[in-house]
Design brief:
about 950 residues, five-stranded antiparallel β-sheet, about 20% strand, alpha+beta, about 40% helix, disordered N terminus, seven-stranded mixed β-sheet
Length: about 950
């Protein structure tokens, strides 16, 4: 390539031409307009046309415009008249000539850039654009770049700008004289697209809680390091901001990320901008969600912040501020949406908990109501039905106890209702606290002693004070009864002291309460590990009633507990001195209710499970399982007429009873401690010993869903309380009978399986023996009597026939048909080849030439079986004859035996049918008939009487 021709450059002589105006040394201005001010190339509107017309080109390397090369003049004229940003760089020094549209690109470099070398004006990017300029000036091809990032210094510090431009050569003779740059500054478009992508990514965040949302927002922002190098998301925790998530390189953490240093308020009034960065302008911003949105959510989120470290090369212009405002709003919306979703989930969980509590409460109350109702209706039904004339005292006391139990439940629910409605009001009166408490706890202490617990009480300094009797009774009875109920072994101690406070302490060594649930025990309907107590009964309102009563009395209640160690509940009440005489003791009705509660916990005279007596002694063995002693006794008494009855208090005890001996049927309650009824059913069904034991579930939960639940676990029946004695007994008898039939069917199936296996195993050795006998006979051994071989052959044939019957029956029992091999056979030959029993007088009347299509072996076995049955029945003569009709060939077999007994006729062709006077497998006629049918015929009984029996074997006629 030839070196470029030197473009036109003004010479010294040219610069001092007489045509050049003289500068006034006093003002430094031209004494007249420039000679080129009227040049046609500058004769257009615009700032740059005026500036070029007034520029001192005579002192520039380009020289006066009149001396410029024509191509330069033409190109400058075109650039000035273009509305598109253009700059022309001329010569080896790349002198800049540009138009009005190019001025914004220069910033503060304008107007000094006019006539200056490009490298002097843009030293910061010369390494990028210089090689491209030189390449084009030296004859290279034109260039094109799209959205090229360049860091410019335009007066406000370094700034990343984006350009789409083309460098084209401007020919000057044989070589380019300059480079024409046509460009578009695409910075707004590039940044706008990037910022829109950020907003879209943040808008796509979906989370179920603010912390998860903060992490997702940080992850979304981390995907755009060019616009957001780093930052943190702060959330409010205990009214203070804490870092929930960070991304990129957020820089040093703020002690308190609040808009405290010169904030600029943007947007809806809650986005703050803080300068924390470089020397030339702020480089940190903090934007927070709107307080109005937080107020709508019902809490103050003013300390929820978005801390952003801004890129150093982005000016903080209006577009940037607007973007940050939009970003803060987008983040606030995502956090608010996550918070709303969290609140919705919490509301749903709360509603679910309430629904679960309601369902559990209704289920429990159903059990609590239906059990005493069953015990009330049972004796009343016995009287009304005439089963008994009068009720004895024990039965009446039981009725009274169940009424007291129902009354106690009603009182508990009324207490809850009064507390909920704000109608729980204390009515203090003078009370002998010591005497009242002693009368209340005495029946419960006795109940604990009956259960084998060490019971004790200590009353210290108690006397008379003002107290609401009803509320105090609720406190004492619920705390002590709970202690007895949930203490299976160990001790219960009640301590009462009165000084400046009335202090009641109930301490036990029971199952204890997990720490996580201790704060919930005083909530309504909450039950803690109820399955491990002495009984599952109770509505879960006892401790709630205690808490309400203590609060109304102006006191406080505290609890200390550890699982496996025990629980201590302490009640402290203020003491108000009484001036009047103390009130009387609790009413007889109230004490009756206390005694009923004690009897519910531990019934009188209830022996241990290993010594529990049984009702009834003969018949099947039944097991009654229920945690309520009265219900156990009621059901056991009803089933005493069916058989021997055992009892157990829960599922665990029931499994122990089942392991000790055979039980024919189990009747179990559903709701029980330790192991409930459905768990018991599952354990029985998984047991290797007796998984088929029938189980009837008794439950207070009525309805199809409850029944489906029990039956789905493997129960045989489901009886809802209350039930009648007659219904329960009828169901038990029905299931015992069904169980007996199932066991018989199983035994029969086992026997059939065994016989089929044995028959299959016998077939091969019998075939071997038969072949050996046939070989011996053919050898003609003189010392071997034919009577012996004949007897052995007949015995082996009989055994082979028996094995064949067993194998055929085995196939038929699985639903398959007997296999036959059909061929054309002569009937006389068939009859002659039958192994007829010895000692039987045989008469045959078979038509000569009669033919059938049948299986020869099957036909011979059928005829031999009929003859053998006749001999076993006592027949001495047998007639075999044939006759033909449209249905086929009939082979009739008649004997002179005593006939078939009537009790056998109904099941004559069923398997395993034999009479008491005959021997055999009981399969012969069954297999014979099925074989005849497989060959297209049939075997039927024609008649039977004391004179003999006739069978008809119908076969398909042959060709």
């Amino acid at each position: 390539m030839t070196p470029p021709r030197e473009p036109h450059v003004a010479t010294e002589a040219t610069a001092t031409s007489s045509d050049v105006p003289v500068v006034d040394p006093r003002t430094g201005a031209y004494d007249d307009a420039t000679p080129w001010s009227g040049d046609a190339i500058f004769a257009c509107a615009g700032e740059m046309a005026e500036r070029m017309a007034a520029h001192p080109w005579d002192r520039n390397v380009l020289g006066p415009p009149a001396q410029w090369p024509p191509v330069l003049r033409t190109t400058v004229s075109m650039v000035l008249r273009s509305k598109y940003p253009m700059t022309l760089t001329w010569g080896e020094q790349f002198v800049m000539l540009y138009n009005d549209a190019y001025v914004p690109v220069l910033g503060e470099k304008h107007p000094d850039a006019l006539g200056s070398p490009l490298a002097e004006q843009f030293p910061e990017i010369w390494d990028a654009i210089g090689p491209m300029q030189r390449a084009v000036l030296q004859g290279g091809e034109a260039t094109w770049d799209e959205n090229l990032p360049l860091v410019l210094e335009r007066g406000d510090g370094p700034e990343e700008c984006f350009f789409t431009f083309s460098y084209s050569p401007v020919p000057d003779g044989d070589q380019p004289g300059g480079v024409l740059a046509v460009l578009s500054m695409t910075t707004p478009e590039v940044l706008g697209a990037r910022r829109l992508a950020i907003l879209n990514d943040v808008g796509a965040v979906s989370a179920s809680d603010p912390k998860t949302a903060a992490a997702a927002i940080a992850a979304a922002l981390d995907r755009h390091p060019s616009e957001l190098p780093g930052g943190r998301v702060w959330l409010s925790e205990d009214a203070a901001p804490v870092v929930a998530a960070a991304f990129g390189e957020p820089g040093p953490a703020l002690e308190a990320p609040t808009p405290a240093v010169g904030p600029t308020i943007l947007g809806a009034g809650r986005t703050a901008w803080l300068g924390l960065g470089g020397a030339h302008r702020p480089s940190h911003a903090v934007a927070s969600p709107s307080q109005e949105q937080a107020a709508d959510a019902g809490e103050d989120d003013s300390s929820a912040l978005l801390e952003l470290r801004l890129p150093e090369l982005r000016p903080l212009d209006e577009a940037h501020r607007r973007f940050l405002d939009q970003l803060s709003q987008a983040v606030a919306q995502r956090l608010e949406a996550a918070r709303a979703q969290e609140l919705e989930a919490q509301r749903a969980a709360t509603l679910s908990e309430l629904n679960t509590a309601k369902t559990h409460f209704l289920s429990t109350m159903s059990h609590e109501l239906r059990t005493p109702l069953t015990l009330l209706l049972g004796p009343l039904h016995d009287v009304l039905s005439g089963r008994v004339d009068v009720l004895d005292r024990a039965a009446v006391e039981q009725l009274n106890g169940q009424c007291q139990r129902l009354l106690g439940m009603v009182e508990d629910l009324l207490e809850i209702s009064r507390s909920e409605s704000g109608r729980l009001v204390a009515h203090p009166e003078a009370v002998d606290v010591d005497g009242l408490t002693a009368q209340l706890v005495e029946p419960l202490l006795e109940a604990g002693e009956r259960a084998g617990l060490r019971m004790s009480r200590t009353f210290r300094g108690a006397g008379t004070c003002l107290l609401d009797v009803r509320l105090w009774e609720n406190v004492v009875l619920n705390l002590v009864s709970n202690a007895v109920k949930y203490t299976l072994e160990g001790s219960v101690h009640v301590d009462l002291a009165m000084d400046d406070q009335l202090v009641l302490t109930v301490r036990d060594t029971g199952i204890g309460i997990p720490e996580a649930q201790q704060s919930l025990v005083f909530q309504r309907f909450h039950r803690v590990r109820a399955g491990e107590g002495r009984s599952i009964e109770g509505a879960g309102v006892g401790l709630a009633i205690v808490a309400d009563a203590v609060a109304e009395l102006g006191g406080e209640v505290s609890l200390e507990s550890a699982p496996g160690v025990g629980t201590t509940v302490t009640v402290r009440l203020p003491v108000r001195e009484a001036e009047a005489a103390p009130a009387t003791a609790p009413t007889a009705l109230r004490l009756a209710g206390v005694r009923a509660k004690a009897l519910d916990l531990v019934p009188v005279g209830e022996p241990g499970p290993e010594r529990r007596p049984a009702a009834g002694s003969a018949g099947p063995t039944l097991l009654v399982v229920d945690d309520n002693a009265a219900m156990r006794q009621h059901v056991a008494s009803a089933l005493g007429e069916v058989g021997r009855v055992l009892v157990a208090a829960d599922g665990v005890e029931a499994l122990e009873v089942l392991a000790r001996g055979d039980v024919d049927l189990v009747v179990s309650d559903v709701m029980m401690p330790r192991l409930d009824g459905e768990g018991l059913v599952a354990a029985i069904r998984e047991s290797p010993d007796r998984p088929d034991v029938p189980v009837i579930l008794l439950s207070a939960r009525a309805g199809s869903e409850a029944a489906i639940s029990g039956l789905g676990r493997g129960a045989d029946d489901y009886v809802a309380k209350p039930f009648s004695r007659e219904e329960l007994v009828a169901r038990v008898r029905a299931h015992l009978e069904l169980s007996s039939l199932r066991r018989e069917r199983q035994r029969r199936r086992d026997r059939e399986t065994m016989l089929a296996g044995v028959s299959h195993d016998m077939q091969t050795p019998l075939a071997t023996i038969a072949n050996a006998l046939e070989l011996l006979t053919s050898l003609g051994i003189p010392d071997l009597p034919p009577e012996i071989t004949g007897t052995m052959t007949r015995s082996v044939a009989s055994l082979l026939g028996l094995v064949a019957e067993f194998l055929d029956w085995s196939a038929l029992s699985t639903g398959a048909r007997v296999r036959v091999h059909l061929e054309d056979l002569e009937v006389p030959s068939l009859v002659a080849d039958v192994a007829w029993p010895r000692g039987l007088e045989l008469t045959t009347q078979v038509g000569a030439g009669a033919r059938v299509r049948a299986d020869a072996l099957r036909v011979r076995r059928i005829l031999a079986n009929l003859a053998t049955n006749a001999v076993r029945a006592g027949a001495t003569r047998l007639w075999v004859g044939t006759d033909r009709d449209t249905d086929g060939l009939h082979v009739r077999v008649r004997d002179d035996g005593p006939g078939i007994p009537p009790e056998v006729l109904a099941r004559l062709f069923q398997p395993w049918t034999t009479s008491q006077d005959t021997r055999g497998s009981g399969l012969g006629l069954y297999v014979s008939r099925e074989s005849a049918r497989a060959m297209g015929g049939d075997l039927t009984l024609v008649d039977t009487s004391s004179a003999g029996t006739t069978f008809d074997l119908r076969l398909t006629s042959g060709g």
